[in-house]
Amino acid sequence: MNTYLVTGAAGFIGRSIAAELLARGKRVRGIDNFSTGKQENLVGLEAMDFIEADVNDAAAVTQACRGVDCIFHEAAIPSVPRSIEDPIGSNFAGVSGTVQLLTAAKDANVRRFVYAGSSSVYGNTPTMPKTEDMTPSPISPYAVTKLAGEVYLQCFTQVYGLETVTLRYFNVFGPNQDPTSHYSGVLAIFTLKMLAGETPTIYGDGEQSRDFTFIQNVVYGNLLASEAQAEKVSGKVFNLATGHRISLNQAVEILRTATGYNGEIRYAAERGGDVKHSLADISQARECLGYEPQVQFREGLERTVDWYKTIAKRGGSGAGSAQ
Ligand code: UD1
User: Fold this and answer.
1) From the CB of 169, is ligand 1 less than 6 Å away?
2) Which CATH architecture has domain 3-172+212-240?
């Protein structure tokens, strides 16, 4: 049976991919250094062969790649503001870690390498929706690391013949996303606050918009990317999103209904490195991967709120993130 390796397996997206692979009866190996991932995210993934290590640890990744058919590379230090505070750390995890893993993957004859790219590479370019052939224009260190990673993938396809696919995720949200850090995704933060009756803070006027993508769509896109014909996908980049955008103010209104919060919303200064609008054209993913969003925004958000309610009842705060 094929073995799949998931990096960042104790993070939000990594654990969600690993869970789906296990549910499909696959053999899964996971690696995480718990820098932002959480031990509690491994609950339910006991069948996974887990290695606690950094993706920059050459010996550990060599061991992790042994006998692997496909890698889902989710490990990174997420967050635009965190990368502005610590560009070197962001680069080490995101760029050096990716090169280390790519090298181990080609040495181990891994068939395919699927990479967590990011919509942040488009920056503030005015054209909407974003198509993959647009010139990237990163405006944060995080976005630079994500762009460097995808260029490295293409280089490894060209030079070593490794099959690679980059999926540019657009603001992923859903169950298991860590809501407890100020670096967390906005919907996770707002859901937790509103359920607790605390005031959320919007940075800027709230009219910034995102193509918020429910986690199930991202997991689905990854599985398609691992299986698609190499001629259609290898060395290529795909937007992974819904093709719809929603402003933060609109999202807050939906969250009010879902959480029952009727308190104030605080507005503060816009955040440095912030992109104003983000919307994906997903026609390439449709055509080459056979991708179609499975869950739309509102349903995804309601499911997310329900999950946080259940966790709160159990006395937890939510889990780890490695977006
Ligand atoms: C960016 C990327 C996303 C990537 C993520 C990794 C873009 C368009 N998106 O997300 O693909 O996965 O980095 O971390 O570049 N905000 C508030 N209040 C809060 C927190 C956030 O108003 O308490 C605002 C932010 O200023 C921003 C929006 O909400 O305008 C979304 O922020 P966040 O969830 O952190 O994601 P991005 O930085 O957009």
Assistant:
1) yes
2) 3-Layer(aba) Sandwich (3.40)
